[in-house]
From TrEMBL:
Spans traversing the lipid bilayer: none
Record protein name field: Transcription attenuation protein MtrB
One Pfam family linked to the record: TrpBP
Alphabetic keyword roster: RNA-binding, Transcription, Transcription regulation
Length: 72
């Protein structure tokens, strides 16, 4: 899939931000949870295995659709 080489960036604005990967396909479930502390950055892609990402906690998120903050 062409969009699978795009990266997105998540920067934690507090300790304990969770980046949760959800599976691609008919069975949508969590398959990975990454914990970021304040200032930590994760750079990731959508893949064959990951079609959605859920972010819990205060973070700055940068995608090809723009930059957004999770609410406090
Ligand atoms: N093994 C996962 C995958 O290839 C790693 C991964 C990629 C991931 N993007 C992610 C995990 C986003 C969490 C969130 O799909």
């Amino acid at each position: 899939m062409s969009n699978q080489n795009e990266f997105f960036v998540i920067k934690a604005k507090e300790n304990g931000v969770n980046v949760i990967g959800l599976t691609r396909g008919s069975d949508t479930r969590f398959h990975h949870s990454e914990k970021l502390d304040k200032g930590e950055v994760m750079i990731a892609q959508f893949t064959e295995h990951t079609s959605a990402v859920k972010i819990r906690g205060k973070a700055l998120i940068q995608t090809s659709h723009g930059t957004m903050d999770t609410e406090d």
